[in-house]
Q: What sequence folds into this?
């Protein structure tokens, strides 16, 4: 598995040459290296979740990629807070 990394303009002061970078020797090895960044999940739930489908999709994604995420009290709390924040309140009639 390789990725093509495009070179940046010289004024950026960063790498200017484009190159193919080996990510893994096989697709299975690449998939095995994939990890969910817990801090990114938390940041996303706190700042970017705008509707309940986003929270539900995040929960499904965690079930697949971090099956033991429910043992993480902070993550469970933040997910619950996002659900509470995004659940429409019934006002009655």
A:
């Amino acid at each position: 598995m390789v990725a093509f990394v495009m070179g940046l303009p010289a004024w950026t002061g960063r790498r200017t040459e484009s190159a193919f970078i080996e990510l893994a020797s096989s697709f299975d090895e690449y998939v095995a290296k994939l990890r969910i960044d817990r801090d990114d999940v938390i940041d996303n739930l706190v700042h970017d979740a705008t509707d309940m489908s986003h929270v539900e999709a995040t929960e499904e994604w965690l079930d697949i990629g971090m099956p033991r995420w429910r043992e993480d009290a902070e993550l469970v709390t933040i997910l619950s807070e996002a659900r509470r924040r995004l659940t429409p309140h019934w006002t009655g009639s």
